[in-house]
Amino acid sequence: MTDQLDTETGGVRVIYDPIAETPTSYRREPEDAHPPPNYEGYKSTALRHPKQPLIYLPQTVTEITGPQLGPVLMGENDNDLTVQHEGEPIGERIVVFGRVFDTEGKPLRGTLVEIWQANSAGRYKHRWDRWPAPLDPNFTGAGRCITDDEGRYTFTTIKPGPYPWGNHYNAWRPAHIHFSLLGRAFIQRLVTQMYFPGDPFFPYDPIFNSVRDPKGRERMISRFSIHDTVPNWAHAYEFDIYLRGPGRTPFEEAF
Amino acid sequence: MIFETTPSQTVGPYFAIGLPFDVGPFVVPEGTPGAIHLTGTIYDGAGVPIPDFLLETWQADPDGNFADVHDRGGPSQIDGFRGFARYGLEDGDGTYDILTLKPGPVAGLNGQMQAPHIAVSVFARGMLHRSVTRIYFADETEANASDPALSRVPAERRSTLLAEPVDGGYRFDIRFQGPDETVFFAI
């Protein structure tokens, strides 16, 4: 990695050497970093989790490499979900932006960020979403973005609505945007959901609460940003994402 | 300072809005010499196929090289070899079918050879975190016998990681529970 002065911004721009920057091992995660595979409150987990203990796999070249899909997949308007149709979708126009880091705080450039979401009424454009809320002919709800050299991504979209689901009586999902990150290695792959601050459904949602550590739940909640709100246009939410970073695994453990 | 990772959440039932892409099931383009179909069914704990799964694979090419920028035996010299597949449907039936090349043995970080294998992630509604497994090949008896990852798996469970040769390629089923539960890994 070399630091160069960015003449446009006057700031320091980080330039990576992709090979030199590739760790040979990644940090193991604490046990409660992610939700337990079998979580009572979320009923569908019961038949969809392994019952046998996971087998510890030392990281190999297979896990520390990964696909670089960004350029293959990106199309025009992929990061603006409000201009993908003839007309404008209905709802609160928002900018969702943030940075992708590893656990050492180093920005991850060139990684593919994919999102999908319900429309402002809480309805997904999907064959199996049948609840009686309207579809919006001007909203598909899917977007893609590749992080820049500082790990930044930005989407323009519509704030999704909450919606009911069949998990238990009067179950509603808090408003959320699904996020998928490829990272730079198979081991960094992450699928998560971004929530909005102060959502009244938080205490009742087993998927949100499946993350047992309160600080972990906080890491899934975006931050309202008046500073990044565009006057007379869109309000803004900031959501930084952390993927696994380099580990301290002794070399002998790898193979 | 060390930061904690963002926690995982389920991919949910509606990922097909955003994640599948046209050439997702193709690790190599159609017509690539030596291409094989890797097929299988994914079963839940009741033995019922899971219709709304998303499967991703990552693998080396027949020379043991990966299709990325990392300097680890690679990069692949095979035209159009992406090394990656993504398979998931809006209206799935629990089965998958990807077009790929059978990987070759892969040198490990310490020089110890690994048997041909494919890394697999499974996501679905009802899965709060991906499940990671590996596909090995039933007709690679000798390489499998000395594979450092397989050797960590109890002998009686190793067969759950073996793809069986079938017409046109290999078949590999994934079972989440039950007597033949597939081995899953912590990576």
In brief:
With 255 residues, chain A is mostly beta strands. Chain A has helices spanning 61-64, 70-73, 206-209, 214-218, and strands spanning 2-5, 12-15, 55-56, 93-102, 112-117, 142-146, 152-158, 163-165, 171-173, 176-181, 190-195, 223-224, 235-238, 241-243.
Summarize the topology.
The complex is a heterodimer of chains A (255) and B (187).
Chain A: E1 2-5, E2 12-15, E3 55-56, H1 61-64, H2 70-73, E4 93-102, E5 112-117, E6 142-146, E7 152-158, E8 163-165, E9 171-173, E10 176-181, E11 190-195, H3 206-209, H4 214-218, E12 223-224, E13 235-238, E14 241-243
Chain B: E1 36-43, E2 53-59, E3 84-87, E4 95-100, E5 106-107, E6 113-114, E7 118-124, E8 131-137, H1 141-145, E9 162-166, E10 169-171, E11 174-175, E12 185-186
Parallel strand pairs in B: 1-10, 1-11, 8-9
Antiparallel strand pairs in B: 1-4, 2-3, 2-7, 5-6, 7-8, 9-10
Largest sheet of chain B: 9 strands, mixed
CATH top level label of chain A: Mainly Beta
> Structural class of the secondary elements of chain B?
mainly beta
Mean pLDDT value of chain B:
94
Oligomer: heterodimer
The overall pLDDT average of chain A reads 90
What is the helical fraction of chain B, as a range of percent?
Answer: under 10%
Task: Estimate what percentage of residues of chain A fall within beta strands.
Answer: 25-35%
Q: What is the H level of CATH, i.e. the homologous superfamily of chain B?
A: Aromatic compound dioxygenase
Could you explain the architecture of this structure?
- The complex is a heterodimer of chains A (255) and B (187).
- Chain A has 255 residues and is mainly beta.
- Helix content of chain A is 7%, strand content 25%.
- In chain A, the strands form four sheets. In chain A, strands 4, 7, 12, 13 and 14 form a five-stranded mixed sheet that branches. In chain A, strands 6-5-10-11 form a four-stranded antiparallel sheet. A two-stranded antiparallel sheet of chain A has the order 1-2.
- In chain A, strand 10 (176-181) and strand 11 form a beta hairpin.
- Chain A is globular, with a radius of gyration of 20 Å.
- Chain A starts with a strand and ends in a 12-residue tail after the last strand.
- With 187 residues, chain B is mainly β.
- Helices cover 3% and strands 29% of the residues of chain B.
- In chain B, the strands form two sheets. In chain B, strands 1, 2, 3, 4, 7, 8, 9, 10 and 11 form a nine-stranded mixed sheet that branches.
- The chains are: A mainly beta (255), B mainly beta (187).
- At the A-B interface, strand 3, helix 1, strand 5, strand 6 and strand 11 of A face strand 2, strand 5, strand 7, strand 8 and strand 12 of B.
